[in-house]
């Protein structure tokens, strides 16, 4: 009781935002909110960071793809040389026409392969039959593509078959001789669009002579 008979006054409490336990301040939820950002904001920042990283990676990959395409085109055009990627050197030595002259060998002493490079169906079979009638040993008979079709025929052999090719040139007028790397004495006859007929058998010139090679360089003589 007080002197005037009233109840004693209540003790004054400390403000709500300052709480102490045994003299130490207690950290409240409001203190934590002020110190650390809201979880939702942190999550948004993390998602935005991932989006930026993904965008950077995508742009980088697109750049690498474009660079690879540009480099490939440059290599194909020959503008860019990559060490070790060059194709092996190609032997560009010109083919030469054998010098001759050649003797006329017997028709049955070698094998003839007959090919049709035209659209005339059955041409190779017809010509191979005519050659067989003259005593030639006919080998393969088929169609074959050839770089030049506006010719009578191309006669092709290796070095061992040069004289045999000369024999066929005397039987098929207007032919062109080509040489390849075969090691046997066989001869290929590739018939072209201009082929019409064989030289009549009784009019074939069998005297020695040279090969006709309009597409080849002449073989150099020993003095050259």
Secondary-structure blueprint:
Layout: E1 20-21, E2 24-25, H1 29-35, H2 39-77, E3 96-97, E4 111-116, H3 123-133, E5 137-143, E6 153-157, H4 162-171, E7 176-179, E8 187-191, E9 217-218
Parallel strand pairs: 3-9, 4-5, 4-8, 6-7
Antiparallel strand pairs: 1-2, 6-8
Describe the structure.
InterPro entries: LytR/CpsA/Psr_C (IPR027381). Pfam families: LytR_C. The chain has 224 residues and is an alpha/beta fold. It contains four helices and nine strands; from the N terminus they run ββααββαββαβββ. The longest helix has 39 residues. The chain starts with 19 loop residues before the first strand and ends in a 6-residue tail after the last strand.
Brief synopsis:
With 224 residues, this protein is an alpha/beta fold. The protein is 30% helix and 16% strand.
Tell me the quaternary state.
Answer: single chain
Helix content: 25-40%
Q: How far apart, in Å, are the first and last alpha carbons?
A: 147 Å
What is the H-and-E element order?
Answer: EEHHEEHEEHEEE
Share of residues in strands: 15-25%
Shape field: rod-shaped
**Which class best fits the helix and strand makeup?**
alpha/beta
């Amino acid at each position: 009781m007080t002197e005037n008979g009233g109840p004693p006054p209540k003790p004054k409490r400390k403000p709500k935002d300052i709480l102490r336990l045994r003299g130490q301040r207690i950290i409240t939820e409001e203190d934590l909110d002020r110190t650390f950002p809201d979880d939702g904001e942190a999550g948004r920042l993390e998602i935005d960071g991932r989006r930026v990283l993904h965008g950077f990676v995508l742009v980088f990959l697109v750049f690498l793809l474009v660079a690879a395409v540009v480099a490939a085109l440059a290599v194909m055009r020959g503008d860019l040389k990559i060490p070790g990627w060059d194709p092996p050197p190609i032997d560009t030595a010109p083919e030469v026409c054998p010098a001759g002259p050649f003797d006329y060998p017997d028709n049955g002493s070698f094998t003839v392969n007959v090919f049709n490079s035209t659209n005339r169906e059955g041409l190779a079979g017809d010509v191979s039959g005519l050659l067989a009638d003259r005593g030639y040993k006919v080998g393969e008979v088929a169609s074959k593509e050839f770089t030049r079709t506006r010719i009578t025929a191309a006669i092709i052999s290796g070095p061992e078959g040069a004289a045999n090719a000369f024999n066929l040139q005397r039987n098929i007028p207007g032919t062109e001789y080509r040489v390849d790397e075969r090691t046997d004495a066989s001869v290929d006859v590739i018939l072209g669009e201009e082929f019409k007929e064989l030289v009549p058998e009784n009019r074939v010139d069998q005297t020695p002579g040279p090969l006709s090679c309009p597409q080849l360089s002449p073989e150099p003589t020993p003095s050259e």
